[in-house]
Amino acid sequence: MLVVEDDADTLAATVEMLQLLGHWATGVRSAESAKDRFYDKAFDVLMTDVGLPALSGLDLADILRTRHRLDKLDVIFATGRPAPPTPIPNAVWLQKPFSVEQLEAALARTRSGLPA
């Protein structure tokens, strides 16, 4: 899993939570770095903050889907912003701050294909 979060403490805590849940995860602090680190088939889920500097997490997900010709890229948008009124395909909206249990539930929803 690739985690994109501009706050260093939140990034470290999120990667640690994912590892405690048994997932391999790595993190970067900007969408620009994520574009360089994203390789086809290396990541099964993108977890990104929405309000990143310069390029939003929403834009990042669109760019990665287009650049890598991905029909489906599971994304967890972790943000303090409210969820959009219309669900985003293949995406889960995870409200910050979140617990390990809420993160685990978001991961389960990406695997099941359920909207959230």
Could you explain how this protein is built, in words?
The protein is an alpha/beta fold and 116 residues long. The protein has one domain: Response regulator (Rossmann fold, 3-Layer(aba) Sandwich), CATH 3.40.50. Helix content is 38%, strand content 18%. It contains four helices and five strands; from the N terminus they run E-H-E-H-E-H-E-E-H. It has a five-stranded parallel β-sheet with strand order 2-1-3-4-5, with helices on both faces. Helix 1 links the parallel strand 1 and strand 2. Helix 2 packs parallel to helix 3. The longest helix has 13 residues. The chain starts with a strand and ends with a helix. The mean pLDDT is 91.
Highest-level CATH class: Alpha Beta
Range of strand content: 15-25%
Fraction of helical residues: 25-40%
Q: Give the count of structural domains.
A: 1
Please tell me what the overall shape is: globular
* CATH architecture label: 3-Layer(aba) Sandwich
